[in-house]
Amino acid sequence: MAKQTCIFFISLFLLGSHAVRSQDTVTVPLHIRAGFDLSGPVLNFLDKDLISYGVLGSVDINSAVAVAAGFRYSSFSSSGVLYDFNSRGLSITAGADYNFVKANVARGKYYAGIGMRYGLSFYNEEAPMISYTNEWGTGSTSVPAASHTGHFLELTPGVRAEIFPGMTIGWNLYMRLLISAGAGKDLKPVWMPGYGAGTRGMSTAAEYFISVSIPYKKIKVFIKPRVQQSEDDEETEGENTQTGAENRGFNNNVF
Amino acid sequence: MTRYLSIPLLAIAALLAAILPSCSVQPCYEDTNPMLNTLLLVSGTGETAEADSLRVYTYRETDTLRFVDSNVTSFFSVPLDPDSDQSLFLITLNGVTDTAVIRYNRRPHLVSPECGYTLVSDITGLKTTHNIIDTLIIENRSVTLNGETNLHLFY
Fold this sequence. Notes:
The complex is a heterodimer of chains A (255) and B (155).
Chain A: H1 2-16, E1 25-37, H2 39-46, E2 50-60, E3 65-79, E4 83-99, H3 103-106, E5 110-134, E6 137-164, E7 167-180, E8 202-222, H4 226-247
Antiparallel strand pairs in A: 1-2, 1-8, 2-3, 3-4, 4-5, 5-6, 6-7, 7-8
Chain B: H1 2-19, E1 36-41, E2 51-59, E3 64-73, E4 75-78, E5 86-93, E6 96-112, E7 116-128, E8 135-138, E9 142-143, E10 151-154
Parallel strand pairs in B: 1-10
Antiparallel strand pairs in B: 1-4, 2-3, 2-5, 5-6, 6-7, 7-9, 8-10
């Protein structure tokens, strides 16, 4: 976590240190990115119940929008007094990212934006032991392994920076909205791979990823040089006024 | 540039909110015990009846389980045997005892990750003696955690 925080602030520094340049057009490279999630294997050291490996890719459509997709394998295992639960499966997400950083600042290297994705989770769940107690005593049962398909939506604010040509690091936060766990109202998964706790309508997660980025095309993006444009306008207006005054035979110096 | 800072700051806040709860074991605050709810009614009129005394219990090989022992009541709730597909109840209403056998199918239901699973049931049939009970009918077959009335007992 400390390493992630450190690199996160380095990412911000890289974003902040890039000066805005005033020019009419800027050439922006469009990239294809492919990377993997570093946080999954790290979190496995902290939480032995969860194994999660993710890869993700994106392709820039223009300077602001990229289509993105991700694949994640998750395995969750929990053993307790009341029940044992296992689930494992593959989740697929697909959607788009929007970069709020302007093209002349980002230049294909920096990203601070938000993505929206649709996710599918193909998973298998089972509860090999369930213990239940009431006034009659204790009953035990089990839920055999069964396959289900869950659906969810993801909102993913995040940042990304190119640390050196061809290599990108970044954060994504995941706010997921469950559409359906696909297992009926009685057997909602304790953990739905790719989503999280299947009993909750919303879940959050974070991902710290490193990816390879390959430029595949360069585009020219028109940038409005705001400050210069307003100065030019003032000058033009001043000239027009002066010209107008001259035409009318006035001389400001006289008054 | 400062406007871009709001996104990662939001990310950090949400990340902490997501991670911190998972660091501790969450207690169970939810009801995990589905009950068979029965309403007492006056036979013939169908109005709600108030029994002067009511006891509901069962005999087992080793002991007696007493579920209800109350005065002046028009409603009672009893749990079903989680280890069997039928439960036998002895219902003593105003001093007169009847026997009721409830048959059902059980299925696991996840209450929450903290509370684990419970067993909810669908009533498939019932039998009763008629010493004081006129009729015992199924109003709602699903014995779940929602507290709905399952049986109407006319006497």
